[in-house]
Amino acid sequence: MRFKSIMLALSAVAALSASAANAAVPGELIVNGGFESGNYGQIGWGGHQLQGWNSNGYNFLFNGSNVDNGGVTGSYGNLQLWGPHNGAANGLGASPVGGNFVAADGAFEIAPLTQTVNGLVAGKQYDLSFYWAGAQQQSFNGATTEQWKVSFGNQTKSTEVKQNANHGFTGWQKETFTFTATSSSEVLSFLAVGTPAGVPPFSLLDGVSMVASVPEPQTWGMLGLGLGLVGFAARRRKAKAA
């Protein structure tokens, strides 16, 4: 009787672990998460498009090598960010994944950058990761704050608020949020939030990735313990039979 109880408990643990492992199989769910397919400039304005993403705000696609040396064109002319090439030794540069990135004004013509994520399983958890930083528009002076508000369906999570000194750059950091899908497709949204309105605060974004959550380490530990108990029970049963 005791052996049967152990086997039933271990079967439940194995089923749970297998279910969690299967959730990680689908792989990457974000289209163009590195922003490499698109036209530099204000997204959604003047023919500037960003594959897989939609926006109608003061959001821009930058080349990581010319953010402070040439900038990009928007509805109000050329736009640059303060950096080493235009008078601010603040370390501004491309993200850790390199290439293009998005810069969104958090206090002027604010609108989200969105993408509909498909291939989800309702009730499953998904890990969203991205790199982000705070920067400022060149030719303006004063300290700012930057932040991202990230929504996935009806769930919203926020990064910390970055305090950014005059002509500053906060440096890049990686953020990971876990969301639970409620249907087979959800709208993913990044909204820049910054202050003050008169000193353009820009939130930078790159390397957006979403995959199904992997099993927690303790789940694998439970499975390993369970397999060990199965082996032990089998040996005891064999010894008694002998």
What key attributes describe this structure?
242 residues; six-stranded antiparallel β-sheet; disordered N terminus; globular; five-stranded antiparallel β-sheet; alpha+beta; 2 helices
How many E strands? 13
Structural class: alpha+beta
Distance between the termini: 19 Å
Helix/strand order: HEEEEEEEEEEEEEH
Mean pLDDT: 85
Strand percentage lies at: 25-35%
- The percent of residues in helical segments reads 10-25%
Ranges where pLDDT stays below 50 over 5 or more residues in a row are 3-25, 218-227
Tell me the overall shape: globular
In words, what does this structure look like?
The protein is α+β, with helices and mostly antiparallel strands. It is built from two helices and 13 strands; from the N terminus they run H-E-E-E-E-E-E-E-E-E-E-E-E-E-H. The chain has helices at residues 2-23, 217-241; strands spanning 41-42, 59-63, 72-74, 77-79, 100-105, 113-117, 125-136, 144-152, 155-158, 162-164, 173-180, 186-195, 201-212. Helix 1 (2-23) packs antiparallel against helix 2. The two termini are 19 Å apart.
Summarize the structure.
This protein is of the alpha+beta class and 242 residues long. The protein is built from two helices and 13 strands; from the N terminus they run αβββββββββββββα.
Task: Summarize the topology.
Layout (H helix, E strand, L loop, with lengths): L1 H22 L17 E2 L16 E5 L8 E3 L2 E3 L20 E6 L7 E5 L7 E12 L7 E9 L2 E4 L3 E3 L8 E8 L5 E10 L5 E12 L4 H25 L1
Antiparallel strand pairs: 1-2, 2-5, 3-4, 5-13, 6-12, 7-11, 7-13, 8-9, 8-10, 8-12
Helix pairs in contact: 1-2
